[in-house]
From TrEMBL:
InterPro entries: SIM_Modulators, SMIM5/18/22. It comes from Monodelphis domestica. Its main location: membrane. This is Small integral membrane protein 22. Residues 66-88 are annotated as: Disordered. GO terms for biological process: lipid droplet formation; positive regulation of cell migration; regulation of actin cytoskeleton organization; regulation of cell cycle; regulation of cell population proliferation. The keyword Ribonucleoprotein does not apply. Keywords: Membrane, Transmembrane, Transmembrane helix. The chain crosses the membrane at residues 33-57. The gene is SMIM22. PANTHER family: CLCA DOMAIN-CONTAINING PROTEIN (PTHR36982), SMALL INTEGRAL MEMBRANE PROTEIN 22 (PTHR36982:SF3). One of its GO terms (cellular component) is membrane. It is a single-pass membrane protein.
Amino acid sequence: MAPSSRDVGTELEETVQQLLGRLKSHRLFQSEWDIAACVVFLTFIGTVLVLMLLVLLHCCCRCGCHSSSPPKVTPRRPKGVDNLALEP
């Protein structure tokens, strides 16, 4: 059955009270697992933000790079050193 609005309100109030109690005691994390979960979560959020920043920079910089002239083609030169010992 769906919980009534009174039950949800009571649950929400209890959760807020627990959070305020933790803030007052200056102990937000109760165990090592809480700290580890927070670190993993913040790392994930940081990675997502960095990737979004890179995408934004790529989109913004790419718009200014378009030009009407075709790119210059440079002739290819052979690379490396000829091995004259293999000559007959």
